[in-house]
């Protein structure tokens, strides 16, 4: 998500896992499957949704009631169990206790009998209403429903999140993965863009209905509606949904996606479970985001050739290892790596000088942040999570990998990444495991490098003092 650091004013760790589930009480059960039936009423700027949730009690105690969060202007009409019997519920607009500037609708459902550990239950919530984003809290969350462009995503709690009224509880819910089936009905001239697998498309007299399902277990669902046009590349399993006015740019995005996909595969190997890529254009300022084998890409990459590297960045996320929960907030193992892989793609397509210019821009951005907030310079990368400074992994995190790349060489660096993905795609990685892996593959002691770039802050001084990359590498 390079180029969208505005996201992190509040949501510096929205996509992170961290251990705060006890903030509002005991750990909650988890949603294992969503079945969504969505109907857009674009002229009225409304959406109606029936959400059927399969829930498993993964916690250690029984639960007699379950809390859910929805967008503040979505109103629940009915709640049923699997047999069709109504369940009592209460709903109210609340401020999240640990982020009071953010309001949501809390829906508390009373179960007919306690949900015991390891047992499951199915709940159906019927609701409708409006979505107008969170511009007063998160500048990029401009999600809405209208005739020009509609977007539903987890940032606006467009579908029920099994969480209490705290941001910590939401983050804990995002740590669980689920599958889903979804049917979306829109006016006839509109198309639904979605990152999952398309199962069926039915066109009636005045509406179109699209049926999707998840490609693999995931933690998020995104749905965009507009008068999209579609580009397909069956050979590489690439799909681009774009707005009609950006058809020329869409072809450039498709070519960039094809080329960078080939580059990453050549260097790092094919992802373990490649599912193709879907790219969905969203309006500028709405925030690019990556899901599982798809991403939402702001129109800038479609209209400005200088922003095409954002495509490199989002696709790079498929070569991320799985970070341990207590280091995820550092954003090093996702955004740090994606940012540096983006830089390597820039080098591949535009040359060494372009790589150096990109890294110097990252250095400059990091130093400017440090001048604004001194703790940025005084906090090691390994400490970013504790102080919610993960956004700086885009810059300093990428720089640490740049130094490592120059230090061990191109082939050894690629071997490190391949080994990391083989070992830590399903098993979690942390900084110590990463150091051990690097030293094993490179066959050298990297203690001083890790001490200065990951665990210490001497690296901040090197960046502030504009020490050339060659001189930095010579230190180690």
| Count of helical regions | 14
CATH superfamily of the largest domain: tricorn interacting facor f3 domain
Shape call: globular
Major sheet summary line: 7 strands, mixed
Q: Give the low-confidence spans.
A: 1-25
- Content of β-strand: 25-35%
Termini gap:
31 Å
**Whole-number average pLDDT?**
92
**Name of the CATH architecture of the largest domain:** Sandwich
Strand order of the largest sheet: 4-7-2-1-10-13-12
**Strand elements, count:** 19
User: And the CATH topology of the largest domain?
Assistant: Immunoglobulin-like
Percent of residues in helical segments?
25-40%
Secondary-structure class: alpha+beta
Number of domains: 3
Radius of gyration computed on alpha carbons? 23 Å
The CATH C-level class name of the largest domain:
Mainly Beta
